[in-house]
Design brief:
Radius of gyration: 62 Å
Number of domains: 3
Largest sheet: 5 strands, mixed
Structural class: alpha+beta
Strand order of the largest sheet: 2-1-7-6-3
Length: about 575
């Protein structure tokens, strides 16, 4: 049982489906199909057995008619007398033949549909060979059948001729019924026999009348093939035939003549009879399995999807984002589990709020207090002392002839003075550009020939006011982060134009660029509601512009790694005061 605890729910449901649905349905339908096959075979065997019995009845009726006729003739005393009579001359016999024998044999033989010809045999020397009466001579004695008949004179003998094939491939064996006429002891001077050549066409018609596709054979007790409705191989043997078609044969005995009738069941008929039931069983099995599969899949999804979704939700939780599960719940056991989980989340969030967030608030307050103390300490320094010191250094550089150094100190002093005077929120573009130009000049002094910059400023934009420090941070980022990490000569370009009611500002560098992933994170940081420690300057610009202009400004950052970055800022002129020079 413990191993079941380690199996996933979907595997458990699969085992339930396999052993409780799939296998039982399959086994039941297989058993039903085998039972149906047995019934169909039994029906086919019964059909073939009835056909065989009808064939046997027809054959027995034909042969019994002939044997009854033989028995009746054997009691005809006049016939005995006529065959025992000695004819003084051939003419006397001929007259007797035409006046008696010919009519007698026709009436008592050939007039029957079962008989082709009736023949009398006798060893009376005064009888001539004629069409239907033969004197037993050496030739007839040599044929063999006469000796067989004489050995048992009391019975009706059924003799066989040479088997042959008809044009329709059926097989026929000529049959003869021979009987010794020896009932009257006083009329037995000569041997007397009557032979009927049977109309075997009628017998083969009886055999073929059932039109069985498998075939019907009639064999004697020695296994000799007498009749068949299908052509057989020249080397046909009964044992081989029975072995080859074992389980497919229906045999019926014809005890009167010691014959056996064999019917071969056509397997195609069985297959045809089974086709529709088999298709129905396959269809029902498929539908049953399909319906069961759909139901088990739906049940599986109702379990597995919610459990999997809940598991993923639990794995995604952290201390800062402990959210309730909002997916489908339901009222079953899994739904109860989800509701219990949501109650637990509420308690955890309450605990985090009461303990963890309280500690964070205390830490933030302490940090802000220290930062305020540091800012207060820095503000105590007299800025005039810094300006006077820088001015003294500049004058000393001029006295020593270091004009370039003096110029940089002058720009640095001016840069600090502008920073201290940037108290108002709105400045002219001219003031912003002056600040940027001093910054770029200092950067060029630092890096020498490794740094170049260009500024293309349309005069019409210089008087327009914009929020302070919305261009300078982009220029500073281009210098420090853009070209600071490349080995080639760094170039920064600034372009400002006025088009209609829009100010177009472009800051371009040939630095290391920004990857697509970092650019995506940058946009996420800019639009994040909470304050983060990265991309502070750019996020500050974006939020200030959003505050001032709403949706009326545009900021586009286009960057390619190892090629550079282009920042395009478009802000409206309308609503912003322009100072005329």
């Amino acid at each position: 049982m413990l191993i079941l605890y380690d199996l996933k729910l979907k595997y458990k449901l699969f085992l339930v489906y396999l052993f409780c649905v799939f296998c039982p349905i399959l086994i039941i339908n297989l058993i039903f199909y085998r039972h149906m096959v047995t019934n169909v075979k039994a029906i086919q065997q019964n059909f073939y057995r009835q056909a065989a019995q009808r064939t046997i009845s027809g054959i027995e009726s034909e042969l019994k008619t002939v044997t009854s006729l033989c028995n009746r003739i054997s009691f005809d005393k006049t016939l005995y007398e006529m065959l025992d009579q000695e004819f003084p001359a051939d003419l006397a016999y001929v007259e007797t033949y035409y006046n008696y024998f010919l009519n007698y044999l026709f009436i008592n033989g050939e007039s029957y549909r079962q008989i082709n010809k009736a023949v009398l045999y006798t060893d009376n020397d005064t009888i001539l060979h004629s069409g239907s009466v033969f004197r037993i001579d050496e030739r007839i004695k040599s044929e063999g059948w006469l000796e067989q008949v004489i050995e048992d004179p009391e019975k009706n003998h059924l003799l066989y001729g040479e088997t042959y094939h008809k044009s329709d491939n059926s097989i026929i064996t000529p049959l003869y019924v021979v009987k010794v006429l020896n009932i009257y002891k006083g009329l037995n001077r000569y041997l007397k026999l009557i032979r009927f050549n049977l109309n075997t066409e009628r017998l083969i018609n009886i055999v073929t009348a059932e039109k069985l596709k498998g075939g019907i054979l009639v064999v004697d007790q020695q296994g000799k093939l007498l009749f068949a409705d299908h052509k057989q191989a020249p080397d046909w043997q009964l044992e081989d035939y029975l072995r080859k078609h074992k389980g497919q044969l229906v045999t019926e005995e014809i005890p009167t003549f010691e014959w056996t009738l064999i019917s071969l069941i056509d397997q195609q008929e069985i297959s045809k009879a089974l086709q529709e039931p088999r298709n129905n069983i396959i269809m029902l099995t498929t539908i049953s399995l399909l319906v069961a599969s759909v139901i088990i899949v739906l049940i599986s999804h109702s379990f597995y999807d919610r459990l999997n979704s809940l598991s993923e939700h639990v794995n995604s939780l952290d201390q800062k984002d402990c959210q309730q599960y909002t997916g489908p719940q339901g009222n079953d056991e899994i739904g109860i589990l989800i509701k219990a989980f949501n109650k637990m989340v509420v308690k955890i969030r309450s605990l985090i709020h009461d303990v963890y967030e309280a500690k964070l608030e205390q830490s933030r307050i302490k940090l802000e207090k220290k930062q305020a103390e540091l800012n207060a300490l820095q503000s105590q320094m007299n800025p005039h002392f810094l300006y006077n010191t820088l001015e003294s250094i500049r004058m000393r550089s001029v006295e020593k002839g270091e004009k370039e150094t003096a110029e940089m100190i002058k720009r640095l002093t001016r840069l600090f003075r502008r920073m201290s005077r940037f108290q108002q929120e709105w400045v002219t573009i001219e003031e912003e550009i002056g600040y940027i130009e001093d910054f770029l000049a200092i950067q060029q002094y630092r890096f020498g020939t490794e740094f170049q910059y260009t500024m293309e400023i349309e005069p019409a934009v210089l008087a327009c006011k914009i929020p302070k420090l919305v261009i300078q941070p982009f220029v500073e980022n281009a210098c420090l982060h853009g070209i600071g990490g490349t080995d080639r000569v760094g170039r920064v370009g600034i372009n400002l134009q006025l088009s209609g009611e829009k100010i177009f500002c472009t800051v371009q560098d040939n630095g290391i660029g920004i990857s697509a992933e970092k650019l995506r994170c940058l946009w996420a940081d800019m639009k994040a509601a909470e304050s983060r420690e990265t991309n502070i300057a750019i996020r500050n610009i974006y939020q200030r512009l959003s505050l001032y202009y709403g949706e009326d400004f545009s900021l586009v950052i286009d960057s390619t790694e190892e090629e550079g970055t282009t920042i395009t800022l478009v802000i409206p002129v309308g609503g912003v005061e322009c100072i005329k020079s």
